[in-house]
Amino acid sequence: MAKAWKENAAKENAVARCKRITRGFSLSPFLFVELLATLIVHPYTLGRWTIIMKWLILPLVLLSACSSLPHNMRGTTYQEISLTAAQLSPNSYINTAVRWGGTIINASNKEHGSRIYALYYPLSRSGRPEINSKTEGRFAISSKDFLDPAIFKEGLEFTMTGTLTGQVDQKIDQKVISIPSLKLQHIHIWPTRQQSDEHFHPYPPYHIYHPYYRYGPYYYDYY
Question: Residues 156-174, buried b or exposed e (16+ Cβ, 10 A)?
Fold first, then answer.
């Protein structure tokens, strides 16, 4: 009886410890290790797996679903070329596949295609632009398809894949500058950042359906 009582008490302590570690879905490396250590030290058959499913695996799945790129935009087939490098030697990288990101300046449409002008920012490990970093400048994205300015709004963060095509001229007030240009393949629009983004929220962001594209509100395929 005393042994069973001690085991139940230890199990309750382990569950409480796991809840405390994962409160707010904070999955820093140190807390992650502490959680695993707690599960190993208290191996209570089915109860251990219940703890894993409820407090570890589910948050990881939700986090992955809400903060990652589409599968066909991942991988290592893209060259690690910065905007600065493309500006210094534009002809050296023509037809090179890259994965870039930034914030939209504006989108315009003409009879034979569309263009997005954007500010370049380096990408984080999740593929999202690091807008707190210093921008390297502007670049242009061209597509033969219609890019609705009501969707591709100023200030939105995006990640895109495409091929470098050289440079194009852009007039800003009375100044004309040359900026790198790309042919669009895929583009992913990120949800607007909230103050609560520092801590993972268990619910996915609200999606608005746009009838122009069959790939949903945040991902578009123009290849």
Answer: bbbbbbbbbbebbebeeee
Which pLDDT tens digit goes with each residue over 57-93? 545 444 444 457 888 898 888 999 999 999 999 999 9
pLDDT in tens, 100-143: 999 999 999 998 899 999 999 999 999 999 999 999 999 999 99
- Amino acid type, 33: V
Same-domain check for residues 35 and 83: no
H/E run at residue 12: helix 2-22
Is residue 32 packed enough to be buried (19+ CB in 10 Å), middle (13-18) or exposed (0-12)?
middle
Number of structural domains found in the chain = 2
- The pair of structure tokens assigned to 162 is 């495409």
Whether residues 59 and 94 share a domain: the answer is no
Looking at 66, 91, 111, which one is the last position of a domain?
A: 66
